[in-house]
Amino acid sequence: MRSVDEVTGSRRLRRMRKTDWARRLVRETELTVNDLIWPIFLIEGEDAAEDIAAMPGVQRLTVDRAVKAAEAAAKLGIPAIATFPNVAMEKRDTTGSHALDEDNLINRATKAIKAAVPEIGIITDAALDPFTDHGHDGILRDGVIVNDESVEQIARAAVGQAAAGSDIIAPSDMMDGRIGVIRDALDEAGFQDVAIMSYATKFASACYGPYREAIGTSGLLKGDKKTYYIDPANTEEALRETEADIEEGADMVMVKPGLPYLDICRRVKETFQLPTFVYQVSGEYAMIEAAAANGWIDGERVMLESLLAFKRAGCDGILTYYAPRVAEILGSGA
């Protein structure tokens, strides 16, 4: 029987795993607070917060509370927040027309946060689903989400968000051509410096349920979104979508959901070498929280491991509901 040294050629890989300092010295991937984007949910009213049952620890916030949340995020070093509104039903219609209101919930929050915390980045979504009475990301006509009319409306909403002070427009609708039309609209309105983060590969996933509860669309949706979101089975289609969005003017791209699509993260980053982000979606968050609450996993360790996996897959940043918790952990040196 050969000795271990004969088998390994005296190359013992455990040498650099023996101690904490050695493991830190050769660590290939690192998660920092600079990688974090915090998605927050908005509601009407004053000085109020609502718990979201399917997302323990996450709340919908009134604009004044959102300002305080942004202040706390900035103190933790989180670079940016992303806002998502729960719009009152009486303001929703088939075309999502309230998205064009310069005083809608997204725009009021952007103005208030920018006034109080100018140093934090604000990312807004121009998709129409929070504003439609059917829960779809575009305009519904005779049972069909009409592409071109939706794109026109989404581009107008994007200009309104930029005017309110949004730093990055992140359209999640997956309509054909929307990135190029939004870029043209922003440029024509004088917002050449406003960036676009494209939801380039948004899949028709089963992981969005808690989010839809958070923005109040879960009971509204008629049909599904498979006619415009990407089939989870398709990799090459995801790459074609990403390439098209980059050619149309996207400054950065996103993969959504996250953990089930690490292969897409890696392919997108390696193929296009553009800033690549990932959204750890509500279902991913809820699964970790539920398992942790039942004592089946160490929630904090699994959370950190999942975020590290995104970095290892090549992502430059992560949209995660865990952002403040992670920032506190990283800041404590734990």
Automatic annotation (TrEMBL):
Subunit comment for this entry?
Homooctamer.
Q: Which InterPro entries match?
A: ALAD (IPR001731), ALAD_AS (IPR030656), Aldolase_TIM (IPR013785)
Organism the protein comes from:
Oricola thermophila
Q: Which Pfam family, giving just one, matches this sequence?
A: ALAD
EC numbers:
4.2.1.24
Keyword terms of this UniProt record: Heme biosynthesis, Lyase, Magnesium, Metal-binding, Porphyrin biosynthesis
Task: Quote the record's binding site residues for Mg(2+).
Answer: 241
Is Metal-binding found in the keyword set? yes
Pathway note? Porphyrin-containing compound metabolism; protoporphyrin-IX biosynthesis; coproporphyrinogen-III from 5-aminolevulinate: step 1/4
Which GO CC annotations does the UniProt entry carry? cytosol
Family, per the entry? Belongs to the ALAD family.
A GO molecular function assigned to this protein is: zinc ion binding
Q: Which reaction does it catalyse?
A: 2 5-aminolevulinate = porphobilinogen + 2 H2O + H(+)
Please report the name of this protein according to its UniProt entry. Delta-aminolevulinic acid dehydratase
One GO biological process term: protoporphyrinogen IX biosynthetic process
Active site (UniProt) = 202 (schiff-base intermediate with substrate), 256 (schiff-base intermediate with substrate)
User: Does the keyword Magnesium feature in the UniProt annotation?
Assistant: yes
